[in-house]
Write a structure and sequence with these properties.
It is built from 21 helices and 17 strands. The protein has helices at residues 10-21, 28-39, 60-76, 100-108, 119-122, 126-133, 181-218, 238-243, 246-260, 313-316, 327-342, 356-367, 384-398, 415-426, 450-453, 471-482, 492-500, 506-518, 545-560, 565-572, 576-586, and strands spanning 81-87, 92-96, 137-140, 153-160, 167-175, 226-229, 234-236, 267-272, 278-288, 291-302, 346-349, 372-376, 403-407, 435-440, 457-460, 489-490, 525-526. The longest helix has 38 residues, at 181-218. It is globular, with a radius of gyration of 27 Å. InterPro entries: AAA_lid_NorR (IPR058031), GAF (IPR003018), GAF-like_dom_sf (IPR029016), Homeodomain-like_sf (IPR009057), HTH_Fis (IPR002197), P-loop_NTPase (IPR027417), Sigma_54_int (IPR002078). Keywords: ATP-binding, DNA-binding, Nucleotide-binding, Transcription, Transcription regulation. This is Sigma-54-dependent Fis family transcriptional regulator.
């Protein structure tokens, strides 16, 4: 590999990349990594690894790896070798090193717990390249993209889930000494294998514990329908299978997964099913050996399926101009309307794009005669002057009884500002103030939030994926909005695909898709082949701009190659293993593309 150090400019990095590609000894894996680093526009002249406070050490990966790293640390004694484990995003979860000089050098390049060493931030390096390629990799000296890392030799091995074979993270050995690359890689492979074996053991113990609690629930005096779920397993008895079918079945599982992902929740939750019935879920956690093995749901289904839609599209608008007839949406609208009309302080919870702002504005237009709607965003700065001015503004707006004051996205407020806002609101006389409406995202709100308790009512606006039956109405509404002539329609197959999409950005994303299609004059009937790539995935994850571009490139490649994964991977210049990993990450199912 060439030894010349590139300058700080991207041009210098490209010049060195040209030398690497012309070097017969250069490995394709390293060349591909350098190419990605240039595309990410990583600065080769400085290290810039983002820092994540309090990385998750409660995951199966961390629980399996930390004892192994601790034992290995004792064996290596004062050798100038550092061991570390990262999650799949490149966040360093743990690092062990007893050599003082090496510790100092690693700290200087931010190779420490909490820092993110993904390629998009640090360029070619052992951790990032192993995660990006899905293969064991040795990055030594000048093979590193960033100059500050070129004194190190790193052997990194991906860690995969023992059964699903999905990427969990990576194990990395780093040293400043030149030695046997083969020995270093052999040790890294061995330790990664030990970690995977321990993850398998932990998973097995967890699943056995979940199965035991599931069987106990099924064999109780009055068992009824029972569901058990964790990250890897779904179990249900015959009573549940026969009681909940069709779209109700999928809606119930979707709700159950979301509840299971919140380890704080236990108790009872009632959810409205697409058929109009109510499912009452009694939630309990399966905990063994101080570990969360999964969640047990005892289910009671209330009511009978409706023979048709719960309500017609026209009647659900109730003069508010809102579209939708799903039970959860209608319930959220009714509860919000009741609080608004009564002038109660309200906390409106919902994911981004779910329709919180639309609901408030519709109520103000229909029911807010004589009242002024005032929207207040979170302050852009956390300086004392900015926060004091923001609080003063809130106080002045609430001092006018005719105002409806909307504090948007209170989950974005810093802790000290939340405390000051709480103090301000606590000392206000609610009978002589304007109406307060706060909006938040559910993943950011705790169940015992004091701000929430200051409100008279709290309403959760359901995400679009829980409003399966409303998608057809929304598609028609947006088509008419952006094609007022009414000349556009949606084919049944395209509508089915739109209804299967998880819509991580909710109604806002659906509107964006329909708006884009409506602007294409050649499209009169929306067909499956007209839909953008984002409608052909099953992932609920909200993607960054770069991730969305990568997802779309993979989807278009698969569609052009008739879902041939191998040929698409070759076209994109990535390995088949990486291709499959990225497909799992983005929820891409090749069979759904043809």
């Amino acid at each position: 590999m060439p030894r010349r150090q590139p300058g700080s400019s991207l041009t210098a990095a490209r010049e060195l990349y040209q030398e690497i590609t012309n070097d017969p000894s250069a490995r394709p894996l390293v060349v591909a990594s350098w190419q990605r680093s240039i595309e990410y526009q990583v600065k080769s002249s400085c290290i810039d690894a983002p820092y994540l406070e309090n990385p998750n050490l409660d995951s199966p990966l961390a629980k399996a790896a930390l004892p192994i790293l601790s034992a290995l640390h004792e064996q290596l004694a004062d050798d100038p070798v550092s061991t570390m484990v990262t999650d799949r995003n490149g966040v360093v979860l743990s690092r062990t090193v007893s050599h003082q000089a090496l510790t100092t050098r690693l700290n200087r390049v931010q190779l420490a717990p909490g820092h993110v060493f993904a390629e998009r931030y640090v360029g070619t390096n052992g951790i990032g390249t192993a995660l990006a390629s899905g293969r064991p990799v040795m990055i030594a000296g000048s093979q590193h993209y960033v100059e500050a890392l070129r004194d190190f030799h790193c052997a990194a091995v991906p860690i995969l889930h023992p059964t699903r074979r999905t990427l969990l993270g990576a194990f990395n050995l780093t040293t400043a000494r030149q030695g046997s690359a083969g020995m270093l890689m052999a040790l890294a492979r061995s330790v990664a294998g030990q970690i995977e074996s321990e993850i398998a053991a932990i998973s097995s113990r967890r699943e056995r514990a979940l199965f035991q609690d599931y069987m106990d629930a099924c064999s109780s005096v009055r068992p009824g329908p029972v569901l058990a779920i964790n990250r890897d397993v779904v179990m249900m008895n015959e009573q549940l299978r026969s009681a909940v079918t069709g779209t109700d079945h999928y809606a119930l599982l979707d709700h159950a997964r979301e509840i299971a992902d919140d380890p704080r929740f236990e108790g009872t939750r009632s959810i409205a099913l697409p058929s109009g019935r109510i499912a009452e879920l009694r939630v309990s956690r399966s905990r063994r050996e101080e570990s969360d093995a999964g969640t047990i749901f005892r289910v009671r289904v209330i009511g009978r399926p409706q023979s048709g839609p719960v309500a017609s599209a026209g009647s659900t608008r109730s003069g508010l101009g809102l579209v939708g007839s799903s039970p959860r949406w209608l319930s959220a609208v009714a509860e919000t309307e009741a609080a608004f009309v009564a002038g109660s302080w309200l906390h409106l919870v919902g994911e981004a794009g779910a329709g919180k702002r639309t609901l408030i504005e519709a109520l103000h237009r229909a029911k807010g005669a004589g009242r002024r709607l005032e929207r207040v965003e979170a302050p852009l700065s956390e300086s004392t002057h900015a926060t004091e001015q923001w609080l003063r503004n809130v106080r002045e707006l609430l001092a006018e009884p005719s105002n409806v004051v909307v504090l948007r996205d209170v989950h974005l407020l810093a802790a000290h500002l939340r405390q000051q806002l709480r103090s301000l609101l606590t000392h206000l006389d609610t009978t002589a103030t304007g109406q307060l409406i706060m909006t938040s995202q559910p993943s950011m709100v705790t169940t015992d939030d004091v701000l929430d308790r200051l409100c008279d009512a709290s309403v959760e606006v359901p995400p679009l994926r829980h409003r399966y039956g409303d998608i057809e109405h929304l598609v028609r509404f947006f088509l008419l909005k952006y094609r007022p002539s009414g000349e556009s329609s949606c084919s049944p197959d395209a509508l089915t695909m739109l209804q299967r999409c998880p819509w991580p950005e909710n109604v806002r994303q659906l509107e964006s898709v329909i708006r884009g299609l409506a602007r294409r004059p050649s499209v009169r009937i929306l067909r499956v082949e007209d839909l953008p790539p984002e409608c052909r995935v099953s992932s609920h994850k909200v993607l960054t701009t770069i991730e969305a571009l990568e997802r779309d490139a993979i989807l278009r490649g698969l569609m052009d190659r008739n879902s041939n994964v191998q040929r698409t991977a070759q076209d994109l210049g990535i390995s088949r293993a990486t291709m499959y990993r990225k497909m799992r990450r983005y929820g891409i199912v090749p069979s759904s593309l043809t």
